[in-house]
Amino acid sequence: MKLAVLTLAAAFAISQSASAQSSEKPAPQSAASAQAAPDPFASVPAPKPDDVKSIDAIMTAVYDVISGPPGERDWSRFRSLFLPTARLTAATKGPDGAVRLRPMSADDYATHAGGYFLKNGFFEHPIVNRVQTFGNVAQVFSSYESRHAAGEAPFARGINSFQLLNDGKRWWVVSILWDEERLDNPLPKDFASK
Description:
Blueprint: H1 2-23, H2 31-34, H3 55-66, H4 75-80, E1 82-93, E2 99-104, H5 106-119, E3 123-134, E4 137-147, E5 156-166, E6 171-180, H6 189-192
Parallel strand pairs: 1-6
Antiparallel strand pairs: 1-2, 3-4, 4-5, 5-6
């Protein structure tokens, strides 16, 4: 009985404290904090509408915009496909067998890959895309082949794992995580050819 009275008293004290806190008036906002927060999408270039109208379209656009002979890529088009907070992450394995991750923003990727693309041809195309969707999100496992010139044998293959978002107006790339094929990491048979 003593325990029941203590429990009841504690419950009453907690409810009175919560009631007192909820009846306090909120502090007035300063003029600076009352201003609208900056639009995080303001820095994203406008996309080509056909690039972002479907999952297939945005996948095609990502592969297309990074592929080409030596020279400049259309980095505005590239950036227009990605959320401002998007991540591109390479998962590699060092000679010691340790897995290494190299996370990048879309801007980091444009800077690092841009220098390589100026001097080297790079053509990356999907082999097989496996799409899973739920609500406004999609996950695409996309095996790929990379070549220095169209028609050449691939110098690299692997799998890109795309996470995509539809905001009701368009598709966005949220992240891309990839790993390359190695002797100890061959492409699964169902991703190796169409």
